[in-house]
Amino acid sequence: MRPTTAGGRGPVRYGPPAPGSGLPVLPELADVCAAAARHGTPQPPGGGAALRQAACGYWWRRGLHGGPDDMVAAPGAQPLLFALLAAYDGDVLMSRPCPAWWTPQVRLLGRRAHHVPAPADAGGVPDPFALLETVRRVRAEGGDPGVLLLSPADDPTATVAPPELVREVCEAAVGEGLRIVSDETWRDTVHRPHETVLFSPAEMWPDEVVVVADSAGSLLPAGWPMAVARCPATPRGAALRARTLDLLTALGAVVPGPVAAAAGYALGDPEAVTARARAAAALHGRVAAAAHRAVLVSGALARTPQAGRHLYADLGPLRDRLAGAGITDSMELETHLSGRLAMSVPGGHRFGDEPGALRVRLSTGPLLGSTREQRLASLAAERPLRLPHVARAMDALTAAFAELG
């Protein structure tokens, strides 16, 4: 990630990637991908029958019903969401903060993006009252609010929105005639799945909600791009899917055959994949909890991380001390911490926050070690924080925040 320009966000191509797992490719996935590489038959736009059937089973096991003809696959969440948004009409509403790539996509489509503040207890979904106020203000100004983007398990805040909050937000959105797209990429990365309830809005409004999941969340390496969407099993959902397929075809956005084979295998929830996902989620949860403690000890703030491989720190309480060090906005904070920690620490301005908010996203993947052997040792350890390489990384993080506190 290169430094941000004076414009506040920087060129789109320099934006931060999603937090990576930091772990080597699972051998079983590599074997499936390698075997499929012998065949050169391309996947059709939207995914072949086998891939869509696997996606159908994946969602059914998570309580979201639908058939293969309701599924759409694409080479990553970005082209898939781009095609879905292009198939809809109207402006797009999303929480503040939000994933770094959402706002640029909306703007590339020539639409207006409206950021609605998230409540204090969780990110990923907007405050329901603020959502209603924003919808009414946009309409009064001549705008056309049409789509609500949300993420029950969130990047960048690493929180899981309480079911009652998701329900209230979606009730408000449906009441105002908004279409809902739920990004559930991180649903299988919940740190404590027996204690944390993740509620998909499609469970209550299956005919109103499109659900999107990127395989990079917990299934495949980030370098093997594949994402799938579940469209409503209604005439309107079928029309949306058809329009989305047209757009993916025009873009040439098809899943490579070997990646489709690996994705089909992973979507079946084989034990090798689910065991790795559980172990990785637990590992990142432990490291994120330690990083969270270091942030709080410095005097900064952060919501408790519940999912994913990251946390979102708010250094607003340290504003006076930071100003004395020449750090007055999130761009300068990003530059300072990225250099100090020798890892990407994107500022909150990349996630829709105001630059003056002094927030950053911290990823836990770089804290697991710098070599394949160290990362696998972190994954296997009962107490990974006691491993020398993890302890050194945590000490560096703690020292960097203590210097700012």
Which secondary structure elements does this structure contain, and how are they paired or packed?
Layout: H1 27-36, H2 49-60, E1 71-74, H3 77-87, E2 91-96, H4 102-108, E3 113-117, H5 128-140, E4 145-150, H6 163-175, E5 179-183, H7 201-204, E6 209-214, E7 227-230, H8 235-251, H9 257-267, H10 271-297, E8 301-302, E9 310-314, H11 319-324, H12 330-341, E10 359-363, H13 372-380, H14 388-404
Parallel strand pairs: 2-3, 2-4, 4-5, 5-6
Antiparallel strand pairs: 1-7, 6-7, 8-9, 9-10
Helix pairs in contact: 1-9, 2-9, 3-8, 5-6, 10-14
Task: Give the gist of this structure.
The protein has helices at 27-36, 49-60, 77-87, 102-108, 128-140, 163-175, 201-204, 235-251, 257-267, 271-297, 319-324, 330-341, 372-380, 388-404, and strands at 71-74, 91-96, 113-117, 145-150, 179-183, 209-214, 227-230, 301-302, 310-314, 359-363.
Descriptive notes:
The protein has 405 residues and is α/β, with parallel strands linked by helices. Helix content is 42%, strand content 12%. The chain contains 14 helices and 10 strands. It has helices at 27-36, 49-60, 77-87, 102-108, 128-140, 163-175, 201-204, 235-251, 257-267, 271-297, 319-324, 330-341, 372-380, 388-404, and strands spanning 71-74, 91-96, 113-117, 145-150, 179-183, 209-214, 227-230, 301-302, 310-314, 359-363. The protein has a 7-stranded mixed sheet, sandwiched between helices. Strand 8 and strand 9 form a beta hairpin. The protein is globular and about 60 Å long. It starts with 26 loop residues before the first helix and ends with a helix. The model is unreliable at 1-9 (pLDDT under 50).
